[in-house]
Amino acid sequence: MKMNLFLDTHAHLSDKAFEADLPEALERASLAGVDRIVTVAESLDDAEKALALAAQDDMLVVGAAVHPHRADNWSGEIAARLAALADSGSLAAIGETGLDYHYHFSARENQQRAFRDQIRLAKATGLPL
Fold first, then answer.
1. Model pTM greater than 0.85?
2. Rounded to whole angstroms, how far apart are CA atoms 97 and 92?
3. How many CB atoms are closer than 10 A to CB 116?
4. What does DSSP assign to residue 11?
5. Helices in 3-107 by DSSP H: which ranges?
6. What is the pLDDT along the chain (129 residues), one digit of tens a residue?
7. 8 A C-beta contact, residue 111 and residue 99
8. Alpha-carbon distance 47 to 54, whole Å?
9. Cβ(68)–Cβ(38) below 8 Å
């Protein structure tokens, strides 16, 4: 019985870069001793892709949120969609979220609002952030 779990906590396997060889990439990870991979979605559209991948391979679990670069798009509708995913039991974590003031892709106040809402969601659902 294996006692230790080797977990990759942050991969973007739904990215186009993995379309051509995802099965091979997962095989390489497994051969290297990786037991589980959290594929992280930066948007709800990305979450749908990640969830489809996870449904095909037990090695994958999904973290989903709205990345700070996309926080200008944060809305009640997006918050409700993310909450529904979290409540469904489909997610292993809320993320990728946070604050990113380096690139200025989204206004600081929008990043803060989205981040606070996603923190509340993680607390309400008991999911890690």
1. yes
2. 14
3. 10
4. E
5. 22-31, 44-56, 76-87
6. 667 889 999 999 999 999 999 999 999 999 999 999 999 999 999 999 999 999 999 999 999 999 999 999 999 999 999 999 999 999 999 999 999 999 999 999 999 999 999 999 999 999 999
7. yes
8. 10
9. no
